[in-house]
Amino acid sequence: MPVITYRQALNNTLGEELARDPNVLLMGEEIGLFQGSYRITEGLLEEFGPRRVVDTPIAEEGFVGLAIGAAMLGLRPVVEIMTINFILVAIDQVVNHASKIHYMFGGQVRVPMVIRTPSGGTGQLGATHSQSFENWFAYCPGLKVVAPATPYDAKGLLRAAIRDDDPVIFIESLALYDTKGDVPEDDDYVVPIGVAEVKRQGTDVTVVSYSRMTAVAMQVAQRMEQEGISVEIVDLRSLRPLDRPTIIESVKKTNHAVVIAEDWYSYGITAEITATIQEEAFDYLDAPVQRVAGLEVPLPYAKDLSAATKPSANSLVYAIKKVLAGKK
Amino acid sequence: MAKAEEAVRESLEQEDVGTLRHYYYQMLLLRRFEERTSEMYVKAKIGGYCHLNLGEEATIVGLMAALTPDDYIFTNYREHGYILARGVEPGPIMAELFGKETGVSGGRGGSMHLFDEKAHFMGGYAIVGGQVPLAVGAAYALKYQGRPGVAVAQMGDATTNIGAFYESLNLAKLWKLPVLFFIVNNGYGMGTSVENGSSEPDLYKKGGSFRIHGERVDGTDVLAVRDAVRRLRQKAEQEGEPAILDITSFRFRGHSVIDADRYRDADAVRRGREAFDPVRNFGASLHDHGIADDAFLRETAERVDREVQEAIDFANGSPDPKFEDMYTFMYATPVPNIPGAEDAIREVRINRGEV
Description:
The complex is a heterodimer. Chain A has helices at residues 6-20, 44-48, 60-72, 91-98, 101-104, 134-138, 151-163, 212-226, 244-254, 269-281, 303-307, 313-323; strands at 3-5, 24-28, 53-55, 76-80, 114-118, 144-146, 168-172, 180-182, 197-200, 205-209, 231-235, 238-240, 257-264, 290-294. By secondary structure, chain A is an alpha/beta fold. Chain A folds into two domains: 3-182, Rossmann fold (3-Layer(aba) Sandwich), CATH 3.40.50.970; 197-323, Rossmann fold (3-Layer(aba) Sandwich), CATH 3.40.50. Chain A has a seven-stranded mixed sheet, sandwiched between helices. In chain A, strands 9-11-10-13-14 form a five-stranded mixed sheet, with helices on both faces. Chain A is globular and about 65 Å long. Chain B has a six-stranded parallel sheet with strand order 2-1-3-4-8-7, sandwiched between helices. The chains are: A alpha/beta, B alpha/beta.
């Protein structure tokens, strides 16, 4: 099986879907002539032309709303928001319109669109360019929110998202774009939306994660194995719908849970997952669930200070050891 | 606002009698529908917010008369008259206001969220400005797919102060999209006058820096509205030239049914309703020019009374949406781990104190 990067997986999938369905089109800032701020759309303007790969002005509310209206008439726009921070100026269109139109109008019209955007921080981007807002969207009924961790899932979930008739928020990560993994060629697989995956089997502790933190968890799990600790990793892949049964099944097996996400601690994704575990697997827990999340500050610029705000392999190791402290 | 008598005569003489009478019928239907809606609201048959089109009948009928079945309409939350004049049956519209399963949005939308896919009536939207980029998107899809038609973004005067309006103007002109920005300028955004909210009170000029043509039209004159829309619609469809229509009218009542309208001078409101009643003025004009006799006016009044009563009866006799269908329209594409009928029944029983 060929090994490609997360970026290549996304780029290939966009190209394949453009070729497959004439109603699919890409929109966003700098995705065409500039080749994409993070080169996800590289080469696609050349291949498919400006009708299918549309450079927009910097006007997120306008072009996100435009994409929703176009989707209502049968187009399947795939919108790139340069980073999730910039979606805040379009949030009315996403939350009050895209997520509600199918339900509010009694199922008469569909909004088949995807909004792709990288979330989270990497490298001194400062307070307004490093935030994680996937929980804002995961909170909204009517949206689907996915956050793949590997090139394989990136491809399979992007296919599923583009072919889905609901608005899908597709969360990427700058730190994952250059990561590599096996992706089959000539195989039209999809990864189902709403289904988590046990990325690694283990017996001592369940780590629940998604996106970049799953990659961190995989490294940590290897490290822990050398210390004789067997870590099971539940990669959520979808934040809405949330695959609660897979989380619960794993926790019932390991009796210990650590939840890790890059967003802020209070009211974040880890809070939701932890609540789910205590509700549905309380009697199976041998220790309180441990949460690992971002420090609650506007992200500072200074290099070391900035890096220290984010959950890391170190903080995950610490949490795993803490949750297992009483284990015989 | 009134045209010179001679001009009225000339414009009416060019028209088909049956068409003029149909406009009058539609305008009276809207008037009666809204009066009875207000009554039903007071009787608590209708909940939530409820905004009426009283005084805007000529604006609405004139717009719809100029549009074709290919066109798509996106409106704000003051939209009962628009979907009626687009030709959707009054019964399912009233049923939606009543929150019934038979309503145009299945009882999930309400007064502010009427919708009819077949009529290309693409929804009432209740966040000011939200519908404007959507309409531009519909125009984008028409152009992309090479289909005939235009999209209409209907909005109130105060919507021209929000950012979504300007981003929409820019995209529409930049990409040469067949869209009309149809501003219903009744002088007030809730309790704030146009002059108190907009540094440029001549709203038709607000497309200037986007190189978008704008016109002010007397919204109490059904033919003037129709003709302006027809002309600009054609330009939009054929040349991809978007336009702004600044349609002036007089708001008969407060912002919504529950607004006591204390910020407007009561005498001025009374005088305005006298002077700018589009339904009565059009009826009188047709009568004066021999297009509608007493019998026609009487029969039309009886007809709309009957039709609106039938709509109320239909709504009253319709079932409520079922609790088990709470999540039915949640997602168009089912995927694992979304809630279904069993979840709805279990949760609703708890919330209703049944367990």
